[in-house]
Each structure stands twice: as structure tokens, then as C-alpha cells.
Amino acid sequence: MDLYNTLTRKKEVFKAIKEGEVLFYQCGPTVYFTQHIGNLRAMVLSDLIRRTFLYNGYQVKFVRNYTDVGHLVSDGDSGEDKMEKGAKREGLSPIKIAEKYIKIFEDDIKDLNTLEPAFKPKATEYIKEMQVMVQDLLDKGFAYSTPLAVYFDISKAKDYTRLSGQNLEKNREGAGVGDVEDPQKKNSADFALWFFRAGKHKEAIQFWPSPFVSPLVEKGEGFPGWHIECSAMIKALLGETIDVHMGGIEHISVHHTNEIAQSESVNGVPLANYWLHNEWLTVNNGKMAKSEGTGFSLAEVKEKGFNPLALRYFFLQANYRSKQNFTWEAMQSAQTGFDRLVNNVSALGEVIGKVDDSFRKEFLEKINNDFNAPQALALTFAVLKSALSSEDKLATILDFDKVLGLNLK
Fold it and tell me: How far apart, in whole angstroms, are the C-alpha atoms of residue 31 and residue 108?
């Protein structure tokens, strides 16, 4: 299997830490709103990748988290906590907001035929583990406290920007540059590991006691920063080093860069051997965003009469590292293509023959080449047009569907 590793900026042959097993983590949603189909695309793509590992004979321990505290409106340290913003918007507690939107999300990804993760941790369930990691960073000199927060000192991190390749002097998207609200931060790009319930967070709804000290609060009360959450959950559920870490390209410059810095400073070993990043879904060649009226939900797709699996079919028509443009016309085309595939497979009958070795080999070559879903999907139509018997066509296509996940039979 060859996959593109963001960390090395090249395709590499996959080699598991433990033979026959893949430890796989994906950054999950912040559950304060209904996820738009751009976010759902990322879930389908991780499912495709997971299914590909399974198809190659690996056991996959897949973890995807829920962020239910600590993710500020920016990806750095500025703005309001998204969960509290959602709670105020709807007059519900953050816990109820999380429950509501986790349910919607899980219904959506079930409709899209994604496999269930081995673990679905909520950040609020791992506060103690986060505090232990933050204390370890303080003890080792990688972090420092101010009255407002505990920060990671990026000047202490080894090769801090190696994942993104960015120049911190010129660009630090989302890390609080231009919005530095703590004058005691040593570097503008230092990021919060723990926010005290003080300053702009004085009225925080979600907070916990901690071993950290601030003259402005009692018992170290506060809440974790977004980045430490994933590091702590990965360590607790998968270990210090995992095989594959996946997220969107928006995670590269801030979130994943910070995960690497804090995890590797604590553990002294690589956080992940392979970093995979999916590109964005655009709409009418522009940004998909609720604020622009283009943050379409799966419910809206269904209301227009489309099958959720036709949306999955649409997602499979583009490589995970390529941008994909969504239009309702493209969705209609995907529905037509999906219906044609389903009808053609149905016409093959009920008797399942033998998987064709030649086609299976070709399918493996395509899907194992950095998860090339468009070529793998196209091969199903080549099978339908081939001279194979109906029984063998059916067996071969159903074999492919173990990866494609279109629920063809």
C-alpha cells in the first residue's frame, strides 16, 4: 500500500507498527451544530481508508473523538468556546447540546454507511488524562503558567513547524496572532494547554478543578485547550505512537502541529508515522459555510429526494487529497450514476459466483495507490461490461463494495 504522508510530503509504502494491525485516529467534530456535508465527506473518506486497510487483511483499531469543550471559534486561543456559543444560542446546557448534535451526526454517518469506530471518546471524559499530560509538560520545562492559562512554549519544541513548513514570522493562521489577549505569553504562537476560569473566560460554563495555580481562581478551575484533548485521548486509547492520524487540511498548520509538539515533548517518540489530510468540499467553487448559506446538511440533501448513498457515491468520485466541488446538478448526476450501478448489479441475479482474480488484482492496485477511489469505482463498471458470467460479476462487485461501502447488495 502506498499513501501520501503530509509529514514527509511524499508517497510512502505503508508499514504497520505491529504486523497485521493499524492504529488509526481521526479528529472528529466539535458537536455544537449540525455537521455540513463537507465535514461528512471527511468521515466517508476516513471510512474508505479504513475499509481499504481491512480489505488488505489488517485489523484496524479506529478512534474518532467528539470535541465537547475547549474548541474556540478560532483554531487557536482567540474567540468564544464553540460549545458554550451553541449552548447560549439554543438555551441548553453544553452537555445537552453535545448529546443533540452527536445524535444527529451519528444518524448521518450511519446513513452514509460508515463503519462504527472502536472508540468514540468525548473530550470531557478525559479531563484527568489531559491534566496529567499538562503537568508532565510543566515538569519537563515545555510549558509555563500565567494567571490566565498554562501555555506550551513553542520555542522548546523540536522542529515545531515540520508538518506545515510554515514561517511563523510571516504566517500563523488561527493561533492568536493579532489577538494576543494575554500579555504574559512568551511567544505569540504559544498555545493554551489549560485555560483558567479568568479574564475573558471568567463566566465559562464548563470548568474543572486542576492542579495548576493561578491567583485569579480557586483550585485551578478552568478547562482544557483544544489541542491537548486529542493528544490525551490518543495516548489513552491507542498508545504513544500510532500508525495513521487523519484530519482535514485546515488542521495542518495549527491543530496537528500542536498535537505533535505536545505529544512528542511528553512521550519522546513520534505521535504518528503517517499523517493523512483530506481536502475541502467546495460549493459552486466557493467556501462551504453555514454563514454563507451553503453549509448544506445531509437532511437538506435527503429533503431534495437524494439517497445518502448517492452522496457517498459522489464523494468517491474524487480523491481524498483533491478538492471536490458540490452543486445540486452534480448531486443529480451522482444519483443517476448510483441508481444505474444499483440497477445493473440487481439485474445480475441472486447467485454469487467467484471473485475474478484479475479484476481483484487491478482493484487492489488502484485502491492501494493512495486510496484512489475514482479509479476503483470506475472498475465496477468495467466488470459489468466484461465477459464474466453474471454470477462472477456479482461476486467481484460485491467484493469491491467491501471498500466502496455502497451497500450494493
Answer: 13
The annotation places the binding site for Zn(2+) at 27, 230, 255, 259
* Domain end residue (candidates: 278, 304, 331): 278
Beta carbons of 69 and 392 less than 8 angstroms apart: no
pLDDT of residue 90: 83
Residues 369/4, Cβ–Cβ less than 8 Å: no
349 conformational bin, left if phi > 0, alpha if psi -120 to 50, beta if neither: left
Q: What span, in angstroms and rounded, lies between the C-alpha atoms of 399 and 393?
A: 10
Task: Point out the domain boundary residue: 231, 254, 278.
Answer: 278
Average pLDDT in the 340-352 region? Answer: 97
What does the pLDDT average to over 99-111?
98
pLDDT at residue 73, rounded to an integer: 53
Residue ranges of the binding site for ATP: 290
188 and 289 assigned to the same domain: no
Query: Annotated binding site, which residues?
Result: 27, 230, 255, 259, 290
**How confident is the model at residue 287, as a pLDDT?**
85
pLDDT at residue 193 greater than cutoff 90: yes
